Amino acid sequence: METIGFIGLGHMGGNMAARYLDAGYTVFGEAANRDSVQWLIDEGLQWTDTPREVAQSADILMTSLPNDDVVGSVASGPDGIIAGLGPGKLWADLSTISPGTSRRLAARVRDEGHSAQMLDTPVSGSVPQVKSGTLTIMVGGDRRAYRLLEPVLRRLGTPVHVGDNGQGLVLKLAINISLAVQMLAFS
User: Fold this and answer.
1) 45: helix, coil or strand?
2) For position 93, which CATH number holds?
3) Structural domain that includes position 80
């Protein structure tokens, strides 16, 4: 069974990590505030001190972060994700960020990540869908990497590979715009 690393252990990411712990995975994690994730540590989360340590410790790294700037910051620098990636490692970014930012990070991972792969894996749903494992997950990135990641993503919901890096985010943003227009039209 693969080991999972999680960065971004708020409402969404924390509940995702809990699903993996409940399924018997070894899960490593890091957050800005250790006290806020004590409940996960009590459930078996292996605490690490930096994003780099999470990436080094896990076969599959997952991030669930609030925006482009935070994802970029956590990925960069000597203690960042990219510095901790190595051959065969996969990074699934569940964050809703811009497709351009995701594509640039994926290129950096390919160039600097020592044969690792990054996939954008934004989700449709919220905490109730996380808890029930019924998220819809739109995946952009290398198809072979997707095949390796797919069984792990199925613990969270239904993953669908939609194309190259950034395409999962393009679809997620298109769905969000469509929903906003529908809500406005019918209100």
Assistant:
1) coil
2) 3.40.50.720
3) 4-185
DSSP states of 88-118: T-EEEE-S---HHHHHHHHHHHHHHTTS-EE
Adjacent-strand bridge partners of 61: 5, 91
CA 106 from chain centre, in angstroms, equals 13
Active-site residue 172, yes or no? yes
* Interatomic CA distance for residues 86 and 93, integer angstroms: 17
pLDDT digits (tens, 9 = 90+) for 88-107: 999 999 999 999 999 999 99
Catalytic residue among 19, 52, 103, 172: 172
Summarised one tens digit per residue, pLDDT across range 41-67 is 999 999 999 999 999 999 999 999 999
Residue where the block lists tokens 């999962």:
168
Distance CA 28, CA 174 (A): 33
What's the number of domains the chain is made of? 1
